[in-house]
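Good day; I would like, with your permission, to put a structural problem before you. A protein sequence and the structure tokens that stand for its backbone fold form the material at issue. Thank you for your consideration; the sequence and its tokens are set out here:
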Amino acid sequence: MLNEIFNECDTKMKGSVEHMKHDFKTLRTGKVTTSVLDNVKIDYYGTLTLLDQVASVLATDATTIVVSPWEKHLVADIESAIAKANIGVNPNSDGEQVKLFFPPMTVEQRQETVKKMKTMGEDAKVSIRNDRKKANDKIKKLEKDKEITTDDSKAAQDNIQKTTDKFIADIESILKDKEAEILKV
């Protein structure tokens, strides 16, 4: 019974770290990646659809992304969706494709990106702490229902805390590395 709680807690905490890493892909560092457009959706025949499902999205060099829709009439929709997404550049269209030209990041932009990154890290930590609370509540309920002893409950809660500490340390390490990457000019 306790092993199920440990495994579930561990899985949820890993998920929080993975979610944070996925969110980091939407941040711009020195070199542009197509993942800055991951959250952009367009209205495709009445359905909100991810940009990469209606167009090819390529980073042609370190500062340019080209979006080539599979249906040419979508160019205007793509252009407006990217403008609304507020990713830091204005889309340029030639009627066939949309080009995004990213200027080199300023120190202020890099610091702003670091702030966003730290917020994402803090959200992940909160999620991990919530997972810890849920696991501890389940353990306390087992103790209250006399399914485990007080000593078992204490040992299980200590185990959950060690797992929590490990994942929080992982997040801190990832944040430190990512901050160095973003601030490197």
